[in-house]
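Could someone model 5-phosphoarabinonic acid with this protein?
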Amino acid sequence: MKLELLYQNLIGIPSESKGIEYVDLGKALPRAKKAFDKFLQQIDAKVLGYDSLPDQNTAEILRYVNSVAEDMDTMVVLGIGGSALGSRAVYNALKTTKSLVNKIYVCDNIDPTLLYEIMEKIELKRTIFNVITKSGGTAETLSQYLIVHKILKEAYKSDYRKHILITTEANNGFLRRVAEWENLPTYSVPANVGGRFSVLSDVGLVPLAFTGIDINRLLDGAKSMRERCRTTELMQNPAMMLALSHVLLLEKGFNISVMMPYSNSLADMADWYRQLWGESLGKRVDDDGNIVRVGQTPAKSIGTTDQHSQVQLYAEGPLDKIITFIRVESFKYDYTIPNLYPDELATNFLAEKTLSYLLKTEQLATEIALTDAGCPNCTITIPELDEFYIGEFIYLYETATVLAGYLQNIDPLNQPGVEAGKIATYALMGHPHYTEHQAKVESYLSKRKVEYKI
Ligand code: PA5
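Reply:
Sure, complex below.
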């Protein structure tokens, strides 16, 4: 079995606003071919490092995990953005069906309450803190590292090292230097793998292997999808079909892409997607320097919960959304609904059906209703929550994202818009390298007034 993509409802559905027709896809084929050729060239040029991650040897990671198995049962990931979202998404997708024993907590914010809550839950003696930052200089992650380092040193004096693991670029960055000074164990993020494309590198594989997830099976799934996404029959290529339909719809005004898993376990997978799609494809300038300001806002919805919150908006609000349903075919744990009141119409249609059957039926019902309402949608079916299919899903979306960028002549790998906020933070925090920005933030602060006190 494999992951399936049903995309017929993205094309040619009745719509009050204009959707896309098969003829539009046909016309866009030369553009798709150009984007696909660039994708292949960039792989050859080793720019798209994520593409070769499925081939890596995991023996060293598994050796490490084995070596700590007896003493440690918890890992806390200290990281943010691409250094955190992938491992959390995969862990939460699989933790229940795979009955994982070792836990990970992902501390991806500097809200002190979050760190406090995690520190309250863990047993320090049996915990490894995996500090993950590709650049080695992200303020959020460094501040967490400094706090945790102090706590560990106070608790364990010279023995604190076995509770810290650093994952950062091989040769660059502050944290790499720290690891050398302190003689801390390290893993590496390849220079040609960007944060949001790094879940299948040491960034994600180390914590995931620690929990007991079969990382080789995860990589096998990615490998299998890579093969499917290499076909030059572009209409058969799932990544190209996702990318092309989303880009063509965006150009017709469908500015929002909602990922809607009918599975609570996959809620964080939708958050992973939000970062990948948003940060990669929201761009001001194209590759020729033209101001284009493109981007499709990714959103998350959970079925069936958000049928009672968001679906009214999707069905009757502005026709500017594409919905991607994620459907899980087979659930490990299930319940049969009992026939308690056989003569009651209110419940007897539910009787003797499983909860998962009802869940899948409601997904189908929402798909039918939204199609009728003119809302373009597609459905990805995951046979079951298993490493292989999650690996397929990850590679599919990484490649669809890159192709969507190349179709629009923008760079999906950079994130210049995030820099301005980082610089302002450094200036506000008094970082000595950012003194020239201090005047700017001070002038802003002098004009910042509270208009209303309530
Ligand atoms: O995708 C990206 O590049 C970003 O979201 C980064 O992952 C995020 O900013 C964290 O960066 P770093 O891993 O360098 O701490």
